[in-house]
Amino acid sequence: MEDRMTEVQIDFASEGELRWIEQNDTYISRQTIEKKLKDREYIVARHKDRLAGYIRFGYFWSMIPYIEIISVEDQFKLQGIGRAMVNFLEDLARAKGQKLIMSSSQADEPQAQAFHRKVGFRDAGALVDLLPLQSVTEVVFVKTIDDGAA
Ligand SMILES: CC(C)(COP(=O)(O)OP(=O)(O)OC[C@H]1O[C@@H](n2cnc3c(N)ncnc32)[C@H](O)[C@@H]1OP(=O)(O)O)[C@@H](O)C(=O)NCCC(=O)NCCS
Hints:
binds coenzyme A, 4 helices, 3-stranded antiparallel β-sheet, globular
């Protein structure tokens, strides 16, 4: 498989990327996407002239970066792009003085869970009742990015 990572750039999404995000992140309204773009709450991976993946995140307790969605296009999977986007979020969290980042995935998504554990998240519990929005348990992940050791 071609190694594309050398040509991939990770950065915040720009407002000019609204259309691509709207087509890919169909879970939230355009208005919310626009607000999150302004607030720099989308990270994208760019390969040449196209987008290869994104993270939409927010802040748990208004402090801790929490990955709401991470997605990599099929032809770019398993090439380190998901990990690189998580690393970008970790750098952002460190710059804000945070010691953790968070994420979650559905309990019936073993591959998504394997990815989280591989990139250093640990299981931190579960949201077992999100009815009527979701019938499946949501597994919560935490990753320590600064253990406080000098
Ligand atoms: C999960 C996802 C974001 C991973 O992105 P990716 O760019 O392919 O992941 P990476 O190449 O950075 O992989 C990082 C590590 O996770 C592992 N990994 C990635 N996908 C995996 C899978 N499906 N099963 C098992 N391990 C996986 C890789 O092997 C790698 O481990 P290594 O460093 O020991 O080799 C991508 O598969 C995806 O978009 N899935 C669909 C959406 C989804 O489920 N999102 C998560 C819930 S919101």
